[in-house]
Amino acid sequence: VSCSILVLVLLFIGPFFEPLPHCVLAGIIITALKGMLMQVKDLPVAWRHYRRDGVIWIVTFVSVILIDIDVGLGVGIIVSLASIILMGQNPQIHVLGNLPNTDIYLEIDRYHTALQVPKVLVIKISGGMHFANNSFVKSKIDKLLRKELEDVKKPKIKNVVIDMSAVIFIDPSSSQVLLNLANDLEKLQISLCLAKCSVHVHEQLKRSEFFTKFSEDKLFPSVDNAVLYTQGSSLALQDSSNVPL
C-alpha cells in the first residue's frame, strides 16, 4: 500500500513540488534516504527468517539505486506479486498417519508418533488444484504410491484416501485428474476414496460432473471414516450415509 501511494505521489503530485528551492528538495531526499539506508539492518533478519522476502528486498533496493525510484518500486511490486503467485502455484502433498487410539491423522514426516494404516495410503493435499499444477499433483501422488508399492516390507496398498480438507478450490481439469487417478488405481486393484471435501469443493466437483463417473459412496466426512470403510467397517458405512457433506 505504501509503495502504491509513493508511486502516485511521484507520478502525479511530484510536479507541484517543482517550484521549491533545491536545498529544500535535497533535505527531503536526504531525510528519506536516511530511513531507507537504515533499513539495511533488516536484511539479515529477513534473509534468515524467510529468504523470499530477502530476495525481494535486494531486488527492490538495487533497482531503486541503479535505475530510478519509481521504476525500482514498480520492480519491487512486480517481484512481490510474482513470488506470491509462485508460492501458491503447487499445493503441499503429505502422507498422513494415525495417532494410536485416536481418530486423528497427521503428517508422518512431521509427527513421528503418527503411524501409517496397513494397506491404506492416506494423502493430504493443501492448496488449490487447477490446470497449472495438475501435472505436479499427479506426479507427486504417483511418486508416493510407487514408493509404497516398491517397499516389500509393507503390506500391499489396497486403498488410497485423499484428505481434501485443505483444498481451497478445484477446477474441472483437476477433477478430471482425480478421475484419471481413480481409473489408474482401479487397474492396480486399488480403491480411491475422498475425505473431508468442503461444501465449496463439493459443489465444484458436482458442476464438473465428477460424480457421474465417481461414486459418492466413496466420499466421506472424515479421514477416519474413510479408513474404517476401507477396512470393511459397517459403522463407517452408516456414518458416511448420515453425516452431511
Question: Strand order of the main beta sheet, please?
Answer: 2-1-3-4-5-6
> In CATH terms, what is the fold-level topology of the largest domain?
Transcription Regulator spoIIAA
Overall shape: it is: elongated
**Please, how many helices?**
10
> Superfamily at the CATH H level of the largest domain?
STAS domain
Head-to-tail CA distance between termini: 40 Å
Count of spatially separate domains = 2
**Rg calculated over all Cα atoms:** 26 Å
Overview of the molecule:
The protein is built from 10 helices and 6 strands, in the order αααααβββαβαβαβαα. With 245 residues, the chain is of the alpha/beta class. The protein folds into 2 domains: 48 residues; 146 residues, Transcription Regulator spoIIAA, CATH 3.30.750. α7 links the parallel β4 and β5. The longest helix has 19 residues. The relative contact order is 0.08.
Quick summary:
By secondary structure, the protein is an alpha/beta fold. The protein is built from 10 helices and 6 strands. A 6-stranded mixed sheet has the order 2-1-3-4-5-6.
How would you describe this structure in keywords?
STAS_dom_sf; Transcription Regulator spoIIAA; 53% helix; STAS_dom; alpha/beta; 10 helices; 245 residues; STAS domain-containing protein; 6-stranded mixed sheet
What is this structure's SSE topology?
Blueprint: H1 2-13, H2 22-38, H3 42-49, H4 51-66, H5 69-87, E1 92-98, E2 105-107, E3 120-129, H6 134-150, E4 159-170, H7 172-187, E5 191-195, H8 199-207, E6 219-220, H9 223-230, H10 234-242
Parallel strand pairs: 3-4, 4-5, 5-6
Antiparallel strand pairs: 1-2, 1-3
Helix pairs in contact: 1-5, 3-4, 4-5, 9-10
Membrane topology: Multi-pass membrane protein
Protein name: STAS domain-containing protein
Main location: membrane
